Amino acid sequence: MANLTKLCILKDGDFVTRTAGTMETFVAAIKETTTRRHGLERFACWNDAAPTEVAQARILAKSLSEQDYFDPVCSPANPLFTFLSRGQIIPHVLQQAEFLGAEKVTVATLIPRHGLMTPDELMAVTAAELKAALRSALNRAGAAQAKGWLLAGLHGSFDLATKLYQLHWHLVVAGGMIDVVDALRNQQQYRSSRDEPDGKVFQRVMIRRKPITDMARALTYIMQGFWPCRWVGTTEDGDLTRLSRRRRIPEPYHSRWLLWMHRQNLSNLMLPMHLEVEKGMLKVR
Predict the structure, then answer these.
(1) Are the C-beta atoms of residues 38 and 65 closer than 8 Å to each other?
(2) Residues whose CB falls within 8 Å of the CB of residue 266, separated by 6 or more in sequence, listed in order
(3) For 34-48, what is each residue's pLDDT tens digit?
(4) b/e per residue, 160-177, with b = 16+ CB within 10 A?
(5) How far apart are CA 263 and CA 254, in angstroms?
(6) Do the beta carbons of residue 151 and residue 141 sit within 8 Å?
(7) In sequence order, what are the residues at sequence separation of 6 or more whose Cβ sits closer than 8 angstroms to the Cβ of residue 53?
(8) What span, in angstroms and rounded, lies between the C-alpha atoms of 61 and 51?
(9) What SS3 class is residue 163?
(10) What does DSSP assign to residue 43?
(11) What is this structure's pTM?
(12) Is residue 11 very low, low, confident or very high in pLDDT (cuts 50, 70, 90)?
């Protein structure tokens, strides 16, 4: 399996230029680090927080405050680490995608049924377990035999109305793997329905059908360091509606998410299939 953290750093200033306005800047990542540290410090003073989580929050906040900006703490909860990791990995993926061309590469989003979680359920699961579940589902859909490749990145959001996290996967998919992802619709975890109790996710497999016009920007969705807070509810007519603007997850839910992220490693937040790292470069196998 490809260890994407072993990829070399490509001197690709063009990638930075093409994603300007989509990805946060280095300065913005530093500012976000300070915001998260302050939130963790407030969480540590929250009376209802579990003692173990209080201790973990204090340790993480201290680590973020003392880190070297150019040698950041290796944690997915750290915006600087995510920023630098994205700059390391995504340009390699972009090279592979543009080599094939927009007609053979697309992006997709997967929302599995088991991805809807309470805060305690989130804290009890690992990214490695979620990754293994996605890999198994893809293999059942024929991924092992298919041509092409894919890279999936774990992301999530928080529903302010239900106080639930919605975990999902963003993917870049190439060649025959597009049909594999499409075939997930036949599996229970990814079958869309308006009759489910949660009733809020109608489409669990979403694949872009139109050619991608800006590949660099599209690929930034694979590695996002920010989970937004959304509100989903019903109108007086019973129709679903949601806030269009992304907001920060409120405390204590934001700090609990950070503690969960800190327990994971980057490799388990991403699933490459039919990709490998050879001498620091990303190759299709």
Answers:
(1) no
(2) 4, 5, 74, 76, 81, 85
(3) 999 999 999 999 989
(4) beeebbbbbbbbbbbbbb
(5) 15
(6) no
(7) 43, 256, 259
(8) 15
(9) coil
(10) H
(11) 0.91
(12) confident
